[in-house]
What does this fold into?
Amino acid sequence: MRNRGQASTGNPTSRRAIGQVSLLALFVTALVTAQLTAAKILAIPLPVALPRIGPEIALPGAAVAYALTFFASDCYAELYGRRAAQVMVNVAFVMNFLVLGLVWSTIVAPAQNPEFAATFEAALAPATNVVVGSLLAYLVSQNWDVIVFHAIRERTGGAHLWIRNLASTTTSQAIDTVIFVGIAFVAAPTFLGIGDALPIGVVVSLILGQYLLKLLIAIVDTPFVYLVVGAVRR
It folds into this structure.
């Protein structure tokens, strides 16, 4: 029995299957966490005040969890191909609506403790403008990430993984930040009457601050992309 177990663990096909399931699980877990934590706005203090940003970075609580989705999608695209990565991204987009439906069904269901129910709703009920902004930002930026990743892969003949990881993640994170902040805090309040529109100066500060943190995360996650890809391929 021991030999059979060892052979199964060392099987390249088995290792690729484990890697695939693990990356899918990481992507979905990070995406669901991002949906549930987006309502809280974080204030990350900086060592020094930066121009147009100030002494702290304001960003949704989902920022770190959402950054993990780009890490997972880049690893997945490198190991299993462009088509598989796009299927993962677009199926997960549809699953976002399932998450929202399950959350809202729980919120509107009769509660035994009304006081706790009010707290539960305040914590988990996503603002409509945030939902609209995050869904559109996700759909565009995640597909862009996969397309750019594989375009660079084809041009470099599969070499220089760090280049395609950084290029795809940094550009897609920029697109995601601009679309999310622009729709959630400018377009939706102005044209749809959803939420409160923020002054342009505040919007610019939000975009710059969020992107700065996302850029740092993209740089830090590159060695881990090599680690995951190498472990599955070894």
In short: The beta strands are 41-50, 54-60. The chain has one domain: 2-233. Helices lie at 2-10, 12-37, 63-80, 82-108, 114-124, 128-155, 161-192, 200-233. Residues 2-233 form a domain with the Arp2/3 complex 21 kDa subunit ARPC3 fold (CATH 1.10.1760).
